[in-house]
Amino acid sequence: MSDARSEILARIARATSTGSPSSWEEIPRDYRQSSTASDRELVDLLTHRLHDYDAQVVEASSSDAATAVAAMLKAREVSRIVIPPGLQSSLLPPGFNFIEDTGLSHAELNQCEGILTECTLAIAETGTIVLQNVPGQGRRAATLVPDYHLCIVDAAKIVATVPEAIERLNPTAHLATTFISGPSATADIEMTRIKGVHGPRFLDVVLLLE
């Protein structure tokens, strides 16, 4: 038996023994929960992880956000885009057909080429974007049905680790929450990678640095 397997089984035995903690709060959490990385390092790490997931990333200032959005949409040849209620109007460039999701049916969402949203936060270590059912992000169906997702990520909302993200999400834990790590992809038994099974096939990110 390998050392790794022995350690896993030993941990399971300890966790399920009669002397196990009586509550979640008593469980030791001695894993790394934070980071000393600078803001720039977090931006670079998140970008690197997103590139690993085959997502495109551009940096922009708040004043240039609409220009960056337009460039991304043109590059993807997307013109009919769903937007959630409450999305900042300053993010919307002219020349595109933005359709507000006021309860669109799945068929209507499927007729749209993509969706533009903001996010609650992003996790640098895992390259994960977190969405919640709030203004500017919208309901889950709207972000899963269209084939393309363009997400605006404010650099101030980037955290380093998953524990930091969970702590920040505690106050809004009752909301529907979606964790996105790159475009939707899966593999069949023959290890053929297929994109778009559980959500958008394509993901782009505009990182706002100011």
TrEMBL record:
A Pfam family per the record: LUD_dom
Transmembrane spans: none
Coiled-coil region(s): none
Domain LUD span(s) in chain numbering: 108-208
Listed InterPro entries: FTHF_cligase-like_sf, LUD_dom, NagB/RpiA_transferase-like
Protein name: L-lactate dehydrogenase complex protein LldG
